[in-house]
Amino acid sequence: MFLDDCSLTVACESFVQLHKPLPNQAIAKQLFVSLAAVKWHARNIYGKLEVKNRTQAVARARELGILL
């Protein structure tokens, strides 16, 4: 699952930030990465969770016990 494959710090931090009501640009600024990097990691996270958007990703992560 995602946590086992979470070797990239930016990917993990992007995942943690997704549940916050912040635009991707604000997340990128907080992580000191580009907007494109946040979007890329978000798409990868959505794929791993088999969802299509941030709302679904947060709900699925909570179902799996990844986010509280």
Write the layout of secondary structure elements.
Blueprint: H1 9-17, H2 24-31, H3 35-49, H4 54-64
Largest sheet: none
Please trace the helix and strand order, writing H or E for each element. HHHH
Helical stretch tally: 4
List the quaternary state of the chains: single chain
- Derived from helix and strand composition plus strand pairing, the structural class reads mainly alpha
Euclidean distance between termini CA atoms:
17 Å
Portion in strands = under 5%
The helix content, as a percent range, equals 55-70%
Average residue pLDDT? 81
Question: What best-fitting shape do the alpha-carbon axes yield?
Answer: globular
Low-pLDDT ranges: none
Number of strands: 0
The Rg value, from CA coordinates, equals: 11 Å
Task: Tell me what you see in this structure.
The protein is an all-alpha fold and 68 residues long. It is built from four helices and no strands. It has helices at residues 9-17, 24-31, 35-49, 54-64. Helix 1 packs across helix 3 (35-49) and helix 2 (24-31) crosses helix 3 (35-49). The protein is globular and about 30 Å long. The mean pLDDT is 81.
Can you give me a brief rundown of this structure?
Helix content is 63%, strand content 0%.
